[in-house]
Amino acid sequence: MFCITFAAKLIGKMYTIKFNFEQKGLEPVVLNNVEAGQSLLEIALTNDIELHHNCGGVCACSTCHLYVEKGADHIEELSDKEEDFIDRAVNPRLNSRLGCQCILIDESGQIEVTLPDQTQFLGE
Fold first, then answer.
1. C-alpha to C-alpha distance for 53 and 34, rounded to whole angstroms
2. What does the alpha-carbon distance between residue 94 and residue 112 come to, in Å, rounded to a whole number?
3. What would be the CATH architecture of the domain defined by 2-118?
4. Where do the domains of the chain lie?
């Protein structure tokens, strides 16, 4: 009984994440059973979703900029440092975040993000 209860708790701490794309020709990607504790940048890269990250994901640039459409309450809060870099991003909005700083908190739920057109960047 303990193993079943423990497994249910682990399974319950999973996310469903939908990646939308502004880039023409790309269809949305839905990922199920995503574990907490990862950044949206890590999740994108692990699943072959292109999200530029010139600084290597250490909150020192704005190339992993994205828009959190749904589920912002499931990711770590915006820091002052992140906010400074978002101000430098292309077309920032109220729901702008940096993918490297969007760490999934230890819960479960649904998150939906939109990635800006990645063709605007000239490499990493």
1. 21
2. 15
3. Roll (3.10)
4. 2-118
64, 41 contact by CB (below 8 A): yes
% pLDDT > 70, the chain: 87
Q: Which amino acid is at 39?
A: S
Q: Which amino acid is at 93?
A: R
Per-residue pLDDT tens over the stretch 56-68: 999 999 999 999 9
State pTM to two decimals: 0.86
Residue 60 near residue 79, CB atoms below 8 Å: no
Q: What does the alpha-carbon distance between residue 80 and residue 41 come to, in Å, rounded to a whole number? A: 19
Q: Is 56 left (phi over 0), alpha (psi -120 to 50) or beta?
A: left
Alpha helices in 2-107 (DSSP H): 2-12, 40-46, 80-86
Q: Helix (H, G, I), strand (E, B), or coil: what is residue 114?
A: strand
Tokens found for residue 70? 């749904």
